[in-house]
Amino acid sequence: MDLGIRGRRALVCASSKGLGRGCAEALAEAGVNLILNARGAEALEATAAHIRDRYDVEVTTVAADIVDAEGRARVLEATGQADILVTNAGGPPPGVWTDWSRDDFIKALDANLLTPVALMQALVPGMAERGWGRVVNITSQSVRAPIAALGLSNTARTGLTGFVAGTSRQVAGKGVAINNLLPGIHDTDRATALDGGMAKQAGISVAEARQRRYASIPAGRYGTAEEFGAACAFLCSQYAGFFIGQNFMPDGGLNNLTM
């Protein structure tokens, strides 16, 4: 399917690996020119080289911490005008609610609420002026199905969901569609680390730990970065203009929710 976005320009955050890279590759396959951002320069440049060689699109890289104001300014300067924005940031660490300080909450809010808001405030007005734009925020399944140990993430990402719910409806009439992707467990470095932690705690092999987690998912497996990226690319396509302020949860059926 031709997604109708060839030649568009996209900023994809945290895109050197994992779900961010999956989104970047899917957009590149659709012919979108990219600004890629991540903190680690080496992995970022390797990803950029792969995408340039495979998809023949323009790729600009900015190695910076998107949560830091100076780093974000450098990313936005390199981006200029963008038609597509994909926000993405690692989630705060798990823990117990009694242990979290005010500083812990502020750090979580900075990364998972205030940074994507700042990026939207910087880029969405230009999209609206030009009459077309797409924003996809990568958040978490914990927005719709809160996870007890991830209270910092639950709090910050739910705040972002509320912001998007209002903002998306204010710009929809100007051709800008803002939506959220709420991933369940995908086969990324994060999942591998969690498998290792479970294996150590239970005294089993990593392979056995992974099989136990597979068994909790009706689809019987983890998601892939490629299929997640394809979902993101569709939400950035010419066909997604009637999806406004929605929360899409690719989780393999893990969360038994009706709405």
* Spatial arrangement of strands, main beta sheet: 3-2-1-4-5-6-7
Count of spatially separate domains: 2
Query: What is the chain-wise order of helices and strands?
Result: EHEHEHEHEHEHHHE
Overall pLDDT, averaged? 95
Pfam families: adh_short_C2 (PF13561)
Protein name: Short-chain dehydrogenase
Organism: Haematobacter massiliensis
Family: Belongs to the short-chain dehydrogenases/reductases (SDR) family.
Q: What's the short version?
A:
This is Short-chain dehydrogenase. The protein has 259 residues and is an alpha/beta fold.
Topology:
Layout: E1 9-12, H1 18-29, E2 33-38, H2 41-55, E3 59-63, H3 69-79, E4 84-87, H4 102-130, E5 133-138, H5 151-171, E6 176-181, H6 189-202, H7 206-215, H8 225-235, E7 247-248
Parallel strand pairs: 1-2, 1-4, 2-3, 4-5, 5-6, 6-7
Protein name: Short-chain dehydrogenase
Organism: Haematobacter massiliensis
Family: Belongs to the short-chain dehydrogenases/reductases (SDR) family.
